[in-house]
Amino acid sequence: MTDRIDYGNLMHEAMRGLIRRVLSDVEAGGLPGEHHFFITLDTTYPGVAIADWLRERYPDEMTVVIQHWYENLEVDEDGFSVTLNFGDSPEPLYIPFDAIRTFVDPSVEFGLRFETQDSGDDDEDDFEDDEAAPEVVEAEEDRGAAEVVSLDKFRK
Predict the structure, then answer these.
(1) Is the separation of the CB atoms in 87 and 103 below 8 Å?
(2) Burial of 119 (0-12, 13-18, 19+ CB in 10 A)
(3) How many angstroms separate the CA atoms of 95 and 104, rounded?
(4) Which residues contact 12 (CB under 8 A, 6 or more apart)?
């Protein structure tokens, strides 16, 4: 047992659960209304399955859009698979939830951002070694920019 609560990882787990639930609902009933998603993922994360040409084009990070054309959305405990259209070329993808860096639904100005901090120390007692707190991103209505609200400001 550790001597502290790992809030950062607990929040990340909860936020990934929210994404899992949203995508499961879309799997069951389709996208409601004007909802659509921009999902940015780490293409180097273990378990990400994308075509070789996509991996070459996006060696570190890519953003996919689930909106007008998508097929075969299937959600499991660890991630989701979907077929998306890339320039009239349907491509199947598998994205582990842990590979997601941002999840945005611009139709309702909602977004989540997952960030990590890299450190050379492995000291468990050093708070800075933990994953950074997740951030909620809300787009500003007039400019389409994003206001990032970090949970760090609530830490003592």
Answers:
(1) no
(2) exposed
(3) 15
(4) 114, 131, 134
Instruction: Kindly report whether the global pTM for this prediction surpasses the value 0.90.
Output: no
| pLDDT surpasses 70 at 127 | no
Overall average pLDDT of the 55-80 stretch:
93
Q: How far apart are CA 98 and CA 34, in angstroms?
A: 26
Q: Are 129 and 118 in contact (CB under 8 A)?
A: no
The predicted structure's pLDDT at residue 2: 74
Count of CB atoms within 10 A of residue 39's CB? 22
* 9 secondary structure, DSSP code: H
Alpha helices of the chain — where are they, by DSSP H? 7-29, 52-57
CA 8/CA 10 separation, integer angstroms? 5
What residues contact 10, with CB distance under 8 A and at least 6 apart?
A: none
